[in-house]
């Protein structure tokens, strides 16, 4: 029954994608036919549909001999996904404008080249600005006060990165930049809040990305949790062993004690449908000394009330990318209690990152690539006071 539902859902999705891409392709065909009279319709639609479905073609597990070509398809397809979202917004507005002008006697086929050129120029601006937002990273500093002590006068510095999506698109260059910036923070603890991989582990291994990740330096350890994309990739055992052998412990419904604080790592919510479930927060915290700071990573930002009641002090999440491309952030804002930024819920400090990498197109609009620096002020530390705290943002 479940397989039948998946088959029906997949068929409906393909049908919708086909209709949307036909709508986009038709408008591009009208423009090209105007600019290049005599262009072959057969050649055009073949090339267009291959590009339109290139990301899906690249996701197919092709034989090793054609893997390089499939990677190229995935990269091309990822950029097309951004173009598709832009077109879905702009083309209906253009059609509406032409329809209104048509009511006034305006010739609807007039100025096709001018209108098409304008949209293409706007698309170019969208891609350039979005690329800048994706690759140019911001460090957001959040000072957090916890009314608990670890018996030291120094505050804790915790570096947080989520949603790296390392693979064929987000590669070693962006990864090296992240490692260098995090190490400049001289953190006590480094936390990777899920989706380190972009589904497949193959490019992660092939490109030697673990060699860069193991350069992360923290006084009291580097810890990670699984995100939904690690589950989608299906190589969790291999991934966790590889990370562990290079000094990064992946916590799966586990708690570790370091630097006088508890680090709690939940399995991703995806485990509830793909792996038989995960432990509840109260069960995970059972037996812990609640007078000590508890910092929890849970990739998807849910269950704030439960975490607050259980005694968690800091909850760190990612997953949403803040929609990645506007106006998707209007959707994520409705789906989650907090889709990005900081929230104080009772005594629980929630920080949701927009992520360091990108899924699909390396494009961000109304969202930025970011790293999080937590300055955790504890009772007895030199910086602890009752004065209001304020966040800080730095472009790197």
From TrEMBL:
Keywords (A to Z) from UniProt: Membrane, Transmembrane, Transmembrane helix
Key word ATP-binding present: no
Listed Gene3D superfamilies: 3.60.21.10
Organism per entry: Paenibacillus auburnensis
Transmembrane region(s): 7-29, 35-58, 79-99, 111-130
SUPFAM superfamilies: Metallo-dependent phosphatases
Name this protein carries in UniProt: Calcineurin-like phosphoesterase domain-containing protein
Domain of life (superkingdom): Bacteria
Transmembrane helix recorded as keyword: yes
Lineage, top ranks: Bacteria, Bacillati, Bacillota, Bacilli, Bacillales
Calcineurin-like phosphoesterase domain segment(s): 157-322
